[in-house]
Amino acid sequence: MLKLQKITAGYNKIPAIMDISFTINPGEIVSLIGANGAGKSTILKTISGLITPLEGKIFFQDKEISKLAIHKIVELGIILCPEGRQVFSSLTVKENLLMGAYTKSKIDHQQLEFIYTTFPLLKKRLNQYAGTLSGGEQQMLAIGRSLMAKPQILLLDEPSLGLAPVITKELFSVINLINQTTKIAIILVEQNATLALKHSNRGYVIKSGNLVLSGNSSELLNSSAIKQAYLGEIN
After folding, report:
1. What's the Cα-to-Cα distance from 103 to each of 20, 70, 148, 192, rounded to whole Å?
2. Tally of domains in the chain
């Protein structure tokens, strides 16, 4: 469904990721794990068009998208839910959700109802300003806004950042429910490596901008090298 082929990308022509190649298949959840600054978020930004690759190619359903404009990538169904949520604080919950459908010719009310069912708290707060929501509520809103674009691939960047463990557990249950219900493929960047692998099918390990290991999530969870490097401090 999505293929990265020897991607090198970065900032001000200085590479942050080098020679990255991986794939994601329809309907699966794939985790990118690694230390802070390893390049995980850069990979998502490159896929979504926020960063243009310095080298390599990206293919979506066999079509090269490496140089496409951001809005064209969104129209294809590749949607980034960014780190830090980035909701529109001065807009209401409903206005934020509708902003997610800005590339669509009309609002899909069936999709809106799906979001209300998935996040019933949002339906109760449609007229509340997004800036007054808690961190967990804002993350739900950010995911809901992304779903309004009707993604085929959802790029989730650090969804648990700054959230209490009980809220994080609830959020990941919802992420799995969305995946199972809609068959949307998900690429997950998550600092909590154990949590990410427990909620994904496969994983790729990024170190200093390089892809150093990949495998089924269960294999990575049971790898002594991965446990020592990434899982020992995270439960």
Report:
1. 29, 11, 10, 33
2. 1
